[in-house]
Amino acid sequence: MTWFRKQKKRLTSEDRRDLPRDVFEKCGACGEILYSERLARNLGVCPECGSHFRISAARYLEILADPDSFEERDAGMESGDPLGFTDLKDYGDRLQAARRRTGRNEAVVTGRARIEGIPVVLAVMDFSFIGGSMGSVVGEKIARAGRDALAGELPLIVVSASGGARMMEGIFSLMQMAKTSAVLARLHERGLPYISVLTDPTTGGVTASYAMLGDVNLAEPGALIGFAGPRVIGETIKQELPPGFQSAEFLEEHGMVDRVVDRRELKGAIAQLLRHSREGWRPWG
């Protein structure tokens, strides 16, 4: 710490080799060497260029939910292996490894919370659990979160971070797109707000279902958002694609995202939307 405070120049990769491991991180956008504790205090946003690092579901819960207000639901739900799927590894082994690594049973955490005192149902995906992929349990937990919002007449907030449908579960995974979308349609019919937050990355079946169905779709700066990869799209439509066409900023410019919000302002932005929703939608909470 003393050495760090005394430095007048920016740290280089050479400097980092002489320092303890796990103390510094390199920004993938600007190349700056960042003090990990400072980066954490800045909510995983590079203080030099504003690039948003990927963070865990637990960290999003700390950022968004009022202290001690989050009450998790359906924590014990675990995926099975309906197809007996094997590629380089058995799917069951992948699930066990993901549970050990993350300390969670699945790629989404759901429950009730308060955001600036406003009661909500909150679901947050974790990309570190098999790429945040949507399997049958992820879809069921999202659907249950929606039904909980209906039962309590509460707003639903979903923070997405996903590579798409979990193909190790085949059609069982793809069915979740219809199931989650149907629950969100019921929220809309009841006049209950649904705010979708898209983080890096939000792709595949998640983008094709609940992630893009918010009454308001917010996105973090620089987030990759899209259904298929650029190569697949280019080969399909036989056209040159514009640069950055799957970025949050491009989608905001073209009307698919309502607003790009810095993570440090995300909680306040959601709370503001919820306060306004009380004036225009059916009362809730």
Short description:
The chain is of the alpha/beta class and 285 residues long. Helix content is 37%, strand content 18%. It folds into two domains: 1-53, no CATH class; 54-280, 2-enoyl-CoA Hydratase, Chain A, domain 1 (Alpha-Beta Complex).
For the residues shown, what is the average pLDDT? Answer: 92
What level of helicity do the residues show? 25-40%
Strand content: 15-25%
Name of the top-level CATH class of the largest domain? Alpha Beta
Describe the main β-sheet briefly. 8 strands, mixed
CATH topology of the largest domain: 2-enoyl-CoA Hydratase, Chain A, domain 1
Tell me the number of strands: 10
Instruction: Compute the CA-based radius of gyration.
Output: 20 Å
Low-confidence stretches: 1-9
CATH H-level name of the largest domain... which superfamily? Answer: 2-enoyl-CoA Hydratase, Chain A, domain 1
Secondary-structure element order, N to C: HHEEHHEHEEHEHEHEEHHEH
Ends distance: 47 Å
Per CATH, which architecture of the largest domain? Alpha-Beta Complex
What structural category arises from helix and sheet content? alpha/beta
Net shape: globular
Number of helical stretches of at least 4 residues: 11
Please indicate the count of domains. Answer: 2
List the helices and strands and how they pair.
Blueprint: H1 2-6, H2 13-17, E1 24-26, E2 33-35, H3 36-41, H4 57-64, E3 71-73, H5 91-102, E4 108-115, E5 118-125, H6 136-152, E6 156-162, H7 171-190, E7 194-203, H8 204-207, E8 216-219, E9 225-226, H9 230-237, H10 248-253, E10 259-260, H11 266-280
Parallel strand pairs: 5-6, 6-7, 7-8, 7-9, 8-10
Antiparallel strand pairs: 1-2, 3-4, 4-5
Helix pairs in contact: 6-7
